[in-house]
Design brief:
409 residues, alpha+beta, cell membrane, MacB_PCD, ABC3_permease_C, transmembrane
């Protein structure tokens, strides 16, 4: 028998029992669909994490005060307030491969303008903040260095703030009161939308650092204390070196002796992104492994049904051998049947998995990210499952004695 005839016989046996063939493939359908959905959801989560972290700014090193512990009370990271504007100036002057340095103080305020009011976050920054955080001006302008030094009462608003206070009207040139202090609107930021963590990045106000410190945040941040320093490395390759140089410089600035803990902490966005992606990847692999158990269950189902088929078709096998079919022909025929059932289940499962991932993405506002390798991988596993779990029934059929097979009822 040639190979085409074997395929024809195998296909005929599958078509002759459509219900049984469908039930046999059901386990593989469920397994492949689950694997494709899990990997797609994991890839979507990875995209969201990447987008959320990248939205904070590229090539960024974030410097924050370390925790403080007065008595036995640990007040957490950022409570020590050990960073100063002079630290930022030293970083900009002495650390190589730095594109921008932006010290920041922030507070939560109620804005009042033209009969409307809105509660939002105000950031006291320098003009380099735009470069450090990859922000752009949509209309108007950013305040300059002179205005920042003088603490002029000017602000740049995010699109959400502009919409809440003035609707569709142009906010440029309007006046808004921040804790009863009038500020003039000189610019509107370009929209960045929601971050990957669901935060509205457009709901923000930028003002000169000196003005925010003296007129908004109060006594807690007197002097030249700042809450955060953003350091943007000139290139992605320079991030690690910039982070190390910033740490060494601040230890010198703060007179920290060898062996003593830092009173600040630095976070490298590239390492944060890498760690987050690794965590999501591990979670995705775990889910895919659990889903892959369904494929094994499906393979066991194929083996059981194939064993039943061998028993039911014993006389057919004996007759085929009697008219000249070799044992290898019977082996190949039953193996083809098992692989065809598994492959068909894989194709159906792949379709269901892709549609399911898209459905989950739409219902949960989750980015649909079906990995391009998921299709070939799912179909490859389907063929392997059919080949492995169909091997024993096929071998058993091929080992039948033709005479004994013909005697069976």
């Amino acid at each position: 028998m040639n190979f085409v005839e074997l395929i024809r016989f195998a296909g005929g046996a599958i078509v002759a029992n459509p219900l049984r063939s469908g039930l046999t493939s059901l386990g593989v359908v469920i397994g492949v669909a689950a694997v494709v959905m899990m990997t797609s959801i994991g890839a979507g989560a990875q995209q969201r994490v990447t987008s959320a972290i990248s939205g904070l700014g590229s090539n960024l090193v974030i410097v924050q005060p370390n925790f403080q512990r007065p008595g036995q009370v640990n007040q957490g990271a950022g409570a020590a307030l050990t960073l100063k504007e002079s630290d930022a100036a030293a970083i900009a002057k002495q650390v190589d491969d730095v594109a921008a340095v932006a010290p920041v103080v922030r507070g939560q305020v109620q804005l009042v303008g033209d009969g409307a009011n809105w509660n939002t976050s105000i950031q006291g920054v320098t003009p380099d903040y735009l470069t450090a955080r990859d922000l752009k001006i949509a209309s108007g302008r950013m305040f300059d260095d002179r205005e920042a030094r003088q603490g002029r009462k000017v602000i740049v608003v995010g699109p959400t703030v502009a919409r809440q206070l003035w609707g569709d009207a142009d906010p440029l040139g309007r006046r808004v009161r921040v804790r009863n202090v009038p500020f003039d609107v000189i610019g509107v930021l370009e929209s960045k939308g929601q971050s990957g963590f669901g935060q509205d990045q457009d709901d923000v106000v930028l003002a000169p650092l000196a003005a925010v410190r003296s007129r908004v945040v109060g006594r807690r941040l007197r002097g030249d204390v700042v809450q955060t320093i953003y350091v943007k490395a000139a290139t992605e390759d320079a991030i690690d070196q910039v982070q190390e140089d910033v740490s060494n410089l601040l230890r010198d600035q703060h007179h920290i002796r060898p062996g003593e803990d830092d009173d600040f902490q630095t976070q490298n966005m590239a390492s944060i992104l890498q760690a987050s992606q690794a965590a999501v990847s591990t979670f995705t692999t775990l889910l895919a492994a659990v889903a892959a158990v369904s494929l094994i269950v499906g393979g066991v189902g194929i083996m059981n049904i194939m064993l039943v088929a061998v028993t039911e078709r014993t006389r057919e096998i004996g007759l085929r051998m009697a008219v000249g079919a070799k044992r290898s022909d019977v082996l190949i025929q039953f193996s083809l049947e098992a692989m065809t059932l598994s492959l068909a289940g894989g194709l159906i499962g792949l379709t269901i998995g892709v549609l399911g991932a898209i459905g989950v993405a739409k219902l949960g506002s989750w980015p649909a990210a079906v990995p391009p390798w998921s299709g070939p991988l799912a179909l490859g596993f389907s063929i392997i499952v059919g080949l492995v779990f169909g091997a024993y029934p096929s071998w058993r059929a091929a080992r039948l004695d033709p005479i004994e097979a013909l005697r069976r009822e």
